Amino acid sequence: xxxxxxxxxxxxxxxxxxxxxxxxxxxxxxxxxxxxxxxxxxxxxxxxxxxxxxxxxxxxxxxxxxxxxxxxxxxxxxxxxxxxxxxxxxxxxxxxxxxxxxxxxxxxxxxxxxxxxxxxxxxxxxxxxxxxxxxxxxxxxxxxxxxxxxxxxxxxxxxxxxxxxxxxxxxxxx
Length: 174
Description:
By secondary structure, the protein is mainly alpha-helical. Helices cover about 70% and strands about 0% of the residues. It has helices at about 1-10, 15-40, 50-65, 70-75, 85-90, 95-115, 115-130, 160-174.
């Protein structure tokens, strides 16, 4: 699988990363549009379409693992701002379990290598839920995982508790 190849060769994937990234994003966006059109027409999706999207999210996860924070310019280059996170977060609620699993994998890899981007997006998500949607109570399970022993931290000098607090600060600021 290409995601494992990317992860194995690490930063050596950089010369082809832009092409892999943009193709994976375009494929996922195309699928999202197909799903919306099929739902509007009350029509079924092609049988193999979910597999293509699942693989594209696997590839994005492998790129994020291989490149670490080096993937940030690729994510930031997408317009409008937040487009990448909208795509990934919409996949988290996809009816297809394989797509959901691999979208969570993307978020997990980004949280390890691109904490700043994830924190900024978390702030925006919680701000939208609070100010625009009127949510005042947020039940959050398993948010301690980043503070567990063995977690990779963005700042190697930060303690696990400091890393946890940075994540919580991003949410509170929202």
